[in-house]
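Give me the fold.
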Amino acid sequence: MSPILTTDFAPEFSGAATAVAGALGAYLLLVEPWLGRRMYASLARRRATEPRALVRYFTLSITLWWAFAALAASTLLLSPGAKAKDLGLALPKDPAFFLPVVLLFAVIAVASGRSFRELAKEGKHIPGRAAIEAMLPRTDAERRLAIAAAVTDGICAELVYRGLLIAFGVGALGLDPYLAAALSLAVYALAGWYQGGTGVVVLALFGALLTGLYLATGSLLLPIAVHAMISVRDLLIPAPELPHTQGGTA
C-alpha cells in the first residue's frame, strides 16, 4: 500500500485552516483557469511590441505562486493537530527510490531539451512549442526569470495542488485519499485551460504522474524535482522569431 494511503493519514484542519484551504481551493477551481487564460492571452498580444511584457508576466506569476504557497503553509500554523508531513513536507519513505527516479527524469529533461534545440536549429516543428510560445524567453534576463518561474512552479504548485488539496480533501471533507487525489488532479488539469483543451489533457497526464509519485513516496520532494526539471526544460525551448512590426527592418 502506498505510504500516504495508510490509516494514519488523517490531517486535522482547524476551522480557520479549513476556511483558508477552502478559499484557496475555490480560487484554483473557479478563478485560476479563467485568469490564467486571460493573462496568457494578454501576454501573447503584447509580446512582440512590449519588451518587458514577459518580465512582468513571470514576476507576477512568481509572486502569486509564493503567496499561494504561503497560504498553504499557514494551514499548518492554524492547525495545532496538523503535521508538516500531512502536506507532503517529509523525506520519502524509501530514499533508495528517490535518486534513480530523479536521475531518470534529469536524463529525459536534458536529452529532450537538446532534441528541441536541434529541431529549432533545423527549422523543424517542436512538439508543444506553439502552446507556450509567448512565454519562451529570448534574452538572458528573460531566461533567468524563466528558470526562477519554472522552479517556483515546481515547488509551489506541488505544495498547493498535491500537498494541500489532497490533505484538505481527506482531513476537512472526509474523502477517501484516492478520491481526494483524483479531485486535486482535476483542479490541476483545469489550470492548463490557457492552452485550450489540449493543455487540460497535457496537465492531466503530467499531474497524474506527479500525483502517483507523491502517493508512492508520501513526500513532495520527488514530484517537486520532476516538476521543476520538466518546467525548466519547457521554458528554455528556443523561441521562434518574433514577427516584424510595421515599419521594422527586415
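The helical segments are 15-30, 32-46, 53-77, 95-121, 140-171, 177-190, 197-217, 221-235.
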